[in-house]
Amino acid sequence: MIRTYLVPYVVLLLMATLLSGIADAQRGPGNGRGFGQGGQGGQHGQDERHDEDRQLFHFLLTNHEKISRTVRELPNGVETLTESDDPAIAAKIQEHVRWMQYRVEESKPIRMRDPLFAEIFRHTNKIKMVRVDTDKGVRVTETSDDPYVVKLIKAHAQAVSGFVAKGFSEAMKNHPVPEEVGADSPKYSHPAIAKYGKVVTLPDATQQPRDGSRIVVDVTHGGEPDKLNTALDKVARFVNIYRGAGKKSAQVDIAIVLHGDATLTILNEDAYAARFQTKGNPNLDCLQALHEADVQIFVCGQSLIGSKAKPDQVVVFADVAVSALTALVNLQTDGYAYVPLGK
Fold it and tell me: Is the whole model's pTM more than 0.85, yes or no?
């Protein structure tokens, strides 16, 4: 067990966030409004918590000498104890850790321009974070059953030590991603869409992506209502293949047409939650990422009405077509190659 006097890693993560920009406002712990990447508008920048969070992080950074942190590596992760003898500082530490746990559990990423942090947030579904408030701060255990994710957790701890040792100069750096476990493990990347559709770069393979390609993806695949529809992750892979899996990036136009079992994946958060009794719509983050990558998104109007949903319940960045039939025919007439993603 190594004992050092450090700024809690949550504070430092937020320091890095503030250097690279805060993302959109989202609902956070309790009944308040949080911060994170998301929302249906697709706009990025300072949110309603920006000033408050900046003041909070500066407060903790200014008082870092009054903060102690014990770091213990575990076979499957790390355990940290971050405390202060000052009750006001201890309360601020607890507040930061609550927000970090929210980010992990809700997959609300920060510092996505740093490869290590971006990779960690791609694997939040494999991270278990347990928080226990103490009289002077908080104890956090971060673990995973995946050996590679364990390496990520421990690499993150090393990066935080660099933040503490060098301050802002270290926060301006990118941190490398540890290699996958096993010498023969493929090296995945996400050239255009950060969290979805991982690809392997094959610059010497045949049938390289061509500039000017046009693809219409016919999506009828369904899935469990509380989980991401895997067909959407495949569409994200198509985007990443053209943007970075070949020798060079290629321009591609991609459209998806949702119908059949995939129809209701396009409902807004409230309508989806009411229909399936879920916490929001697990497909929206991926759908928005596709939209921001210039993928056109259409839903069959006939399937939508037949499912007892309404056009005004569809997310704002998708379009309701008269039918999947007309959309698919029109797009193929316009030169789009047909790719089905069914059951």
Answer: no
